[in-house]
């Protein structure tokens, strides 16, 4: 009987042959492909979804509290199936996602599907506590049915929409791949069937030559979300937003324990600098998601250009930049393009924040945290020696207002039916105990967690809920939708990234005042574009300025519009759009009401 080593040698030989057969060139070491599970679960498989038919995809999410040390600092983290961040959901356009949520947390929760356009009759699946559902109580379960439209694809994410749980890690990526659309209708004879097989094989080969991965890069507090929020809404904060302690990439980062002046349990050996692989011969796509609570992140990759191809699920005319800024809730997909042909194979991905964005210093926060990008040459603990881009020009940074949709037919901008004016700010009043609360038009939102808006028969505003009714009028251009210009005036000295549920909007204009309030002036209206820019669902309203968004509201329901800075949302900076409420199906309202009947999970 041949010795064991001969079997091993034969298996290695067969592996090498197979790798060569499928064009995995051995100029890149095999170790580059044998990645750690923490990294591989963020690498995507487009060919597994683009080439298949629509399907029902079932996920079981168990939510629990675990003591983890993402950057070496111990904290109770909210996990999904034992993972932080939660599992990456991959789907294709037209799929039905059935997500069974089992709440093993010590508090109620809900999950919002950020950026998803729900079809008519599915407003109740949006996951906004107090608006479209009651939160899922501890020990209970709830099932979401997410119907993905046949034309929506790109980079999305899901996250808790209850209390401050987002800051405790309850989020994950949701990637929707486009279907492989045939250029011609199939014909039933052998030659064309053979041609179709060849075409599909080529398409599969193209997809296999793409390294597609997700990076969730956002700020992180060493304290719990509740502690952070309680501090903010106390007399001690004076209305200053809590400055984060770290920037994490996919739940990881190194941290110097001696930098913190707070009382923490810290072991620097448990933190680590994130490492990601790139492929020399393949197209490298990175999908950036900012799941953070406050900070805008400025991203750049040494010796690489960023070719931006998608923003918030909209495919855009590609733009090449050296740095892009991403606010909480936003997403961008980029192709990284190497500059130069030297032998360097490890580079720094720089995740920079500006202290100007914060109201006070935090010595624990590294203003330029980093991740390592390697072309399969990682050896030991050696760090990259690359340098950042210097003296960037304005056109080398991403200008979000300049982005154009890739589809030329999508550049037709509809006329508006009406205008809504909003003023957003944080105020400290004696009536609220001299504590900061967020306001939209003098109303601070306090969700009713036992009687969500969608379940009611009366949708009128109150002192705790600003509800803006939108209905088709005689002047409406379309009988099935309402086109609205939303002018948001930011009265504060800090920016607000605003997110709209269930719809996307055209960001037409932003203004930031050099001095003064910067509010919109009716007698001096700006010149707005005549062609539609790229649709977004999250956009930054400048400090002491304003923004103009145009929205086509065409899905009946109750849709939240709010600041995605966590303490601003939690303290009330939100408004609800009541869209065509007379057309909301009875079943949708019933589903919202039924969410308040708790079922204890087995």
TrEMBL record:
Which residues are listed as membrane-spanning?
A: none
Q: Name one GO molecular function term.
A: copper ion binding
Looking up InterPro entries in the UniProt record yields: Cu-oxidase-like_N (IPR011707), Cu-oxidase_2nd (IPR001117), Cu-oxidase_C (IPR011706), Cu-oxidase_fam (IPR045087), Cu_oxidase_CS (IPR033138), Cu_oxidase_Cu_BS (IPR002355), Cupredoxin (IPR008972)
Q: What keywords are annotated for this sequence in UniProt?
A: Copper, Disulfide bond, Glycoprotein, Metal-binding, Oxidoreductase
At the top level, the lineage of the source is Eukaryota
Q: Which Gene3D superfamilies does the entry mention?
A: Cupredoxins - blue copper proteins
Every Plastocyanin-like domain range: 66-180, 213-352, 481-580
Q: Which PROSITE patterns match?
A: MULTICOPPER_OXIDASE1, MULTICOPPER_OXIDASE2
The UniProt family comment states: Belongs to the multicopper oxidase family.
Q: What is this protein called?
A: Multicopper oxidase-domain-containing protein
**Which lineage?**
Eukaryota, Fungi, Dikarya, Basidiomycota, Agaricomycotina
């Amino acid at each position: 009987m041949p010795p064991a080593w001969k079997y091993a040698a034969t298996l290695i030989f067969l592996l090498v042959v197979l790798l060569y057969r499928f064009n995995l060139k051995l100029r890149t070491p095999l170790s580059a492909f044998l990645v750690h599970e923490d990294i591989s679960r963020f690498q995507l498989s487009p060919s597994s979804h683009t080439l298949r038919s629509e399907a029902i995809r079932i996920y079981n999410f168990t939510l629990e509290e675990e003591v983890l040390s993402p950057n070496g600092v111990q904290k109770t983290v909210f996990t999904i199936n034992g993972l932080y961040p939660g599992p990456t959901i991959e789907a294709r356009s037209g799929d039905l996602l059935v997500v069974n949520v089992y709440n093993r947390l010590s508090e109620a929760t809900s999950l919002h599907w950020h950026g998803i356009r729900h079809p008519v009759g599915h407003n109740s699946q949006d996951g906004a506590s107090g608006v479209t559902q009651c939160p899922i109580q501890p020990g209970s379960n709830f099932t979401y049915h997410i119907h993905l439209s046949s034309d929506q694809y790109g980079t999305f994410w899901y996250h808790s929409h209850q209390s401050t749980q987002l800051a405790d890690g309850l989020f994950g990526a949701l990637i929707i791949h486009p279907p492989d659309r045939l250029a011609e209708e199939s014909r039933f004879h052998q030659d064309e069937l053979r041609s179709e097989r060849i075409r599909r094989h080529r398409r599969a080969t193209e997809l296999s030559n793409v390294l597609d991965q997700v990076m969730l890069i956002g700020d992180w507090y060493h304290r719990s979300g509740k502690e952070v929020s309680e501090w903010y809404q106390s007399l001690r904060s004076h209305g200053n937003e809590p400055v984060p302690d770290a920037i994490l990439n996919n739940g990881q980062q190194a941290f110097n324990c001696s930098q913190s002046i707070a009382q923490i349990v810290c072991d620097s050996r448990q933190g680590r600098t994130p490492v990601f692989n790139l492929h020399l011969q393949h197209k490298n796509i990175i999908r950036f998601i900012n799941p953070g609570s406050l900070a805008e992140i400025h991203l750049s990759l040494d010796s690489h250009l960023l070719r931006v191809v998608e923003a918030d699920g909209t495919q855009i005319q590609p733009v090449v930049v050296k740095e892009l800024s991403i606010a909480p809730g936003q997403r961008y997909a980029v192709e990284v393009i190497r500059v130069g042909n030297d032998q360097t194979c490890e580079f720094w991905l720089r995740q920079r924040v500006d202290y100007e964005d914060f109201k006070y210093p935090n010595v624990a926060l590294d203003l330029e945290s980093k991740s390592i990008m390697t072309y399969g040459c990682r050896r030991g603990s050696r760090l990259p020696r690359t340098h950042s881009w210097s003296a960037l020009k304005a056109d080398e940074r991403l200008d979000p207002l300049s982005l154009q949709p890739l589809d030329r037919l999508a550049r037709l901008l509809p006329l508006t039916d009406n205008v809504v004016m909003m003023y957003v700010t944080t105020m400290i009043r004696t009536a609220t105990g001299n504590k900061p609360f967020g306001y939209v038009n003098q109303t601070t939102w306090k969700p009713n967690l036992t009687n969500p808006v969608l379940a009611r028969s009366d949708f009128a505003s109150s002192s705790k809920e600003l509800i803006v009714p939108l209905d088709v009028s005689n002047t409406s251009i379309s009988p099935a939708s309402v086109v609205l210009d939303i002018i948001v005036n930011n009265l504060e000295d800090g920016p607000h990234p605003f997110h709209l549920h269930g719809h996307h909007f055209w960001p037409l204009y932003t203004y930031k005042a050099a001095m003064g309030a910067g509010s919109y002036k009716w007698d001096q209206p700006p010149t707005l574009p005549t062609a539609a820019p790229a649709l977004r669902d999250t956009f930054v309203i400048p400090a002491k300025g304003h923004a103009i968004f145009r929205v086509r509201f065409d899905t009946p329901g109750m849709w939240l519009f709010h600041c995605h800075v966590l303490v601003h949302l939690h303290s009330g900076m939100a408004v609800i759009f009541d869209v065509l409420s007379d057309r909301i199906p009875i079943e949708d309202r019933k589903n919202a009401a039924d969410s308040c009947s708790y079922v204890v999970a087995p």
